[in-house]
Amino acid sequence: MTSASRIWTRIDYEKDGKQNGWLQLPHSVTRSAYGNIAIPITVIRNGNGPTAFLMSGNHGDEYEGQIALCKLVRELAPDDIRGRIIILPAANLPAAMAGARVSPIDDGNLNRAFPGDPDGTPTVAIAHYIDTVLYPLADFHHDLHSGGSSLQYLPFASMRLGDLPERNQRTMKALKAFGAPIGLIWAYSLDRRLSSVAATSRGLVALGGEFGGGGSVSSAGVRIIEQGVRNLLAHAGIIDAASAVGDFSGPTRLMEIKSRDYYVYAPEAGLFEPAVELGDNVRAGQVCGHVHFVDNPGRPPESCHFDGDGMVICKRHYGRVERGDCVVHLATDYAG
Fold first, then answer.
1. Residue 123 pLDDT greater than 50, yes or no
2. What is the pTM of this model?
3. Which of 170, 165, 167 minimizes the C-alpha distance to 236?
């Protein structure tokens, strides 16, 4: 039997109105024997209706979603909606405050921690609360990401294929309603401990996305999120359709990632010189880039190559690499 979460809150999820508060995770340390990690949460409710759970700060160095959701917290009033919106703008708060992918407290990656453990370290305890308390309250979910410090992405919204065709169809409709220039379908997963996997397992219509990267803030990525979230809320019936923005410049281009062959990894440690840019179309066998060795400049560089055709949707931001670092990954047009 799963233990109850240790996280507590004074937020009442069934109360009408707008509540700004905190999820309190007990955290006893030298400076605060009975302290808590206070994770901000906003709940806006107006009568019965669907619930959308919007989340960012899963990785602390991914900023576009954090900014967009902070704006939404200030902008939305209960009279603007029907149903409920739950907003968690800094889900892994210690990581968000440190501007780091992982928590400085336990080195925990929240997006590799689901379904979590109520009695584990802070990161896995947060995952457990999201999975056992917040997901069961929701009908729609969007976990907003970007490439963080180490990667740069072409902005896209995304979905992950599950085992139920009917839910896949509903999620595809939500992805198209969001209206991002690119809608990515993850048909291949690097890990099963992701928030999107957990949300899908709970039966939610669950979206994700990558809206920038490089440890900076993409103003275009923020705008896509701001507009897309309102489109999603209108699609869910939570705000009036008149408040939706619609698409950005035309229909969403549906793309997919189908296998590990879409990823290219550094063959050695050194300085990576890319031979391609975001948005480039490439062919199998084409050079992806070269790793140079400044500690041994007479050594020829090691090259890496693409295993398949596709478009470069992600590339590494940092110049230095270790063997096994992802330097590029591709996407291809969705085959259905």
1. yes
2. 0.95
3. 170
> What domains can you pick out in the chain, each with its CATH number?
8-257 (3.40.630.10), 261-333 (2.40.50.100)
DSSP letters, 155-218, are: -EEEEE--S-HHHHHHHHHHHHHH--SEEEEE-S-S-S-SHHHHHHHTT-EEEEEE--BTTS--
DSSP 5: P
Per-residue tokens: 119: 């009695």
Q: pLDDT (tens digit, 9 = 90+) per residue, 98-110? A: 999 999 999 999 9
Q: Which residue in 284, 328, 333 sits closest to 306, CA to CA?
A: 284
Q: Tell me, rounded to whole angstroms, the distance of Cα 335 from its chain centroid.
A: 24
Classify 82 as helix, strand or coil: coil
Cβ–Cβ under 8 Å, residues 201 and 161: no
| Best CA proximity match to 252, nearest among 153, 185, 314, 200 | 185
Tokens for 87, please give them: 């907003």
pLDDT at 1 over 60: no
Q: Tell me the residue type at 310.
A: G
